[in-house]
Amino acid sequence: MLRCLGEEFPDARAELDFTNPLELLVAVVLSAQTTDVRVNEVTPRLFARYKSAADYAGADRTELEELLRPTGFFRAKANSVLGIGAALTERFGGEVPGKLEDLVTLPGVGRKTANVVLGNAFGLPGITVDTHFGRLVRRWGWTSEEDPVKVEHAVGELIPRKNWTPLSNRVIFHGRRVCHARKPACGACPLAKDCPSYGAGPTGFDEAAKLVKGPEREHILAMVRDR
Asked: Alpha-carbon distance 86 to 76, whole Å?
């Protein structure tokens, strides 16, 4: 399944736009309860206005909230971003730390956010257990754990550490494009022959193919046809 995911999504990455660790950290915080697409619509103006941790720490709350409003829960997210700016400035010299134990001390930052930043901005292995990841690894029988931290550790024992970040991105891609929560595209899934939950969605290719999403759609369908 790991090899198949690699063939399916060889270039999978975090789908949030960023150019440095601070931008990714802020973007991941903003992605809670909304889509990456929506966050990517908001961050160009945000990143142009606030370029450093000190900029966020000194931001005008009203202005910041207005910029964040389209992402939803904008007041809580503004609190987190202001707090992150202050904490980075006061405790980390204005730089995003490259250690999980430091990242999780920042306002609004848990292990999921920390692992996204470590894996995609610092190149350090991390398993990102979002809703897609947890749902799929349970559907595949890799673990029965529900708690994200326990899921992270259980999968980490199955998969070589060097593969943790690409695995996370590929599983999330697969969950968004093929293995949907309510109606997975079983009949058009490259992982079907190894999946213990095969049949949770339509098994006919034509019906299932209609459910496959994303820019990789034709590649995914060709993988199934070629087999």
From this structure: 15
